[in-house]
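Feature request, filed as a ticket because there's no other form

It would be nice if the structure record came with a short human-readable summary line next to the tokens. Right now we just get the raw output. Example of a typical job, pasted below so the devs can see what we mean:
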Amino acid sequence: MASLLDLAQARLGGLLAPRPSMAGLLGGQRTQANLASALQGYTPPQMTAMTNPQVMDYARNVAQSAQQNLQTQMSDLDKALVMDQGGINVGDRQALARLMEQVPGLMGATAYHGTPHNIRGQFDISKVGTGEGAQAYGHGMYFAENPAVATQYKNILSKPEFTKTAEGVELRGQLPRMLDETYSELVAKNGIQQTNYGDVTDLVGQRLDRQMKDALKANDMDWYNKTADMKLDLARFKENPPPNVGNLYKVDIPDEYIPKMLDYDKPLKDQPKAVQDALAKYDPDSYSPKGNDYDSNELGQSIYQRIVQDNVQKFGLGGNSKRASEDLNALGIKGIRYYDEGSRSASKGTSNFVVFDPTDVKILEKNSQKVEGLLD
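Raw output as currently delivered:
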């Protein structure tokens, strides 16, 4: 299916030229037939074989909706996708959500998942919480619009290979064991996201230095020479560490999930309508406009944490973010979206997604290879 990136690439490829806005696709009073004719036979670069029919379907749906309310639709198209010298950017996410509600099947979300694990078949929510990754934005499976973000998490969460250098030179003596044990020690102490090659090699280097001093005091030159060999190997390893293991998955989040995501950074009044309606059913007093405790400016972050606390009050230690996510999913809220670190300060750009139940998230690629035959 066509993603936002696919549509953006189509624009860059000249599909929507010469007008610089998405509204240009509609061309004022162009008919649906004119749009389909304009798109016939066009295959933008780097797009899948399925993309062209999907873009055509997108154009037909937009045209049909625009006939009913052309002025509003054109305004939302311009706001949702912004072109500037830096390329394609998501503009007004609220306008984008309105478009998706008006035109079912408009677009899904192509996203990425970095993990140290090998996923077979499909994502399994029961595995969430069994690894070492943080669940800072809620309980669920995490995906990133920006592949660089997912790659970073893959590298952080994947345990390094401590048996050889990047050039394939085997490490001698007890050095692999020392590196592995020191890595596990630092992860237990500081957490996996605060542990890296440099921390591990520095600590191992200090321990080898002490061993060499002890060997000299004991006049044990065999011990000293073996330790010196390990110190030399450690320097080579530090200079050329092997790449982290792990996998990067490209996925498609179902179209209908996107307008049903609680926006972590938006106030209640700006949440998608489907989310507002679901929250009003969950707690009419807090989330219905007629409720006594209704606060239209309460942020999505606060809403989620309040539901977590509701579960703590109900179930004690058994009440947690996992129950909160299950409650929201049962109401039809499919997950949480939030700006990634590179976009948060500007409040625009790419997002991360927390999907409460990732069963229907489709894996498209594993490490840039199509999934056929790879997930069995």
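Something like this underneath would help us a lot:
The two ends are 23 Å apart (CA to CA).
The beta strands are 81-84, 87-90, 109-115, 141-144, 247-253, 261-263, 335-339, 351-355, 362-366, 369-370.
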